[in-house]
Each structure stands twice: as C-alpha cells, then as structure tokens.
Amino acid sequence: VLDGDATMRYIFQVFYEGNESKAERMVKYSDGKSVAFDVRLVPGREYTFVVWADVVTAEDAGDNHYDTTDLTNITLKDWDAMDETRDAFTTTATRTYNGSMDLTLKLTRPFAKLRVVTTDIQSLTNLGIVPTKATVIYKTGYRDTFNAVEGKAAAATSNKKEHTNFAI
Q1: Residue 154 DSSP code
Q2: Distance CA 48, CA 51 (A)
Q3: How far apart, in whole angstroms, are the C-alpha atoms of residue 67 and residue 70?
Q4: How far apart, in whole angstroms, are the C-alpha atoms of residue 77 and residue 137?
C-alpha cells in the first residue's frame, strides 16, 4: 500500500553482448502491479533484460533508498530498519531475439524484508500497553549491494548493525 506521493518506479534495462555501454534504459512509474516496455531489438542477438522496481516519493524524484545509477552495483543509500518504502523487487532474463518476443518477468525481493509482528496485541491493549518501538541487532555481516544483472547480492560485510527503538 503506497501512501501520499509514494509510487513504484520500474527501471527496465536491456544489455547485449555483455556490454553495459550498449544498454538501453527506460523508467516508468505505476501504482499497478504490472507495466509494459516496448524495445527495438536486432534478430539473432542475445539480450539480457533487467528490471528493478522500488518505491520513490514522486515520479521523476530520483532514487529514494537505493542508488540505481548502475544496475550492476545497486547500493543502499542509508541503512535503517525495514519499512514499506524500502521494499524493492528485481529480476533478470537472458534470451536470443528471433524476430518476435513477448517476455513476461516475475519480480522478487533482492534483500530480505524485516517485519516485526506482535501476536499478543489484544492482551497488551487490555493492559493499556501500545507497542510502538522495537530493537533488532544483526550480529553478523549484512549485504548492502546488489548486482541486478547477475541477480545476486555482493558478499556480506563484517559490520554489525543495530536498530534501536525503530517504529513498528
């Protein structure tokens, strides 16, 4: 559910001959669950199709939480507890174009999504307690860079992270 000015940004980029400099990149904004892109391709060439979708605050506002300048090196701009505006999705597919192609791609999350849930909300409410804050400590390294072309995250760093008193 996107509130206010938030919308989904879909970045579609086509690579051929493994060369990013020959890439075609298009961006669309939509609150719907699907978008369509039309591209011109040369028959007989192998192409890699890459899609990255994330939440932005407004159309043409640029990157919100992820630096997507280079889809081979998408990085978190700021590292904080997960919220709905940090959600992102991606996929990649490689195909040889033979003159006609209709490609449907299903997006998945590139990073885990943290969701803190209480199962005893009614009991807490009866006691007059309203849970509003949580603390999560990651004791191992975390991944903050993703290569959407290869479909994998970079190696985990050795830094530990702690989210203290973030809003639920």
Answers
A1: P
A2: 10
A3: 8
A4: 20
Which 3 state secondary structure label does DSSP give 112? coil
What are the structure tokens assigned to 146, written together?
Answer: 């993703």
Residue 149 structure tokens: 């072309």
Burial of 13 (0-12, 13-18, 19+ CB in 10 A): buried
Taking residue 74's Cβ as centre, other Cβ atoms within 10 Å add up to 26
**With contact defined as beta carbons under 8 Å apart, do 131 and 100 qualify?**
no
Q: How far is CA 128 from CA 29, 39, 121, in A?
A: 42, 58, 10
Mode of pairing for the β-strands spanning 74-76 and 19-30: unpaired
In angstroms and rounded to an integer, the radius of gyration of the C-alpha atoms of the chain is 19
Q: Express each pLDDT in 100-112 by its tens digit.
A: 888 999 999 887 7
Tens-place pLDDT, residues 89-99: 999 999 999 98
What b/e sequence results for 32-42 when a residue is b if at least 16 CB atoms lie within 10 Å of its CB, and e otherwise? Answer: eeebebeeebe
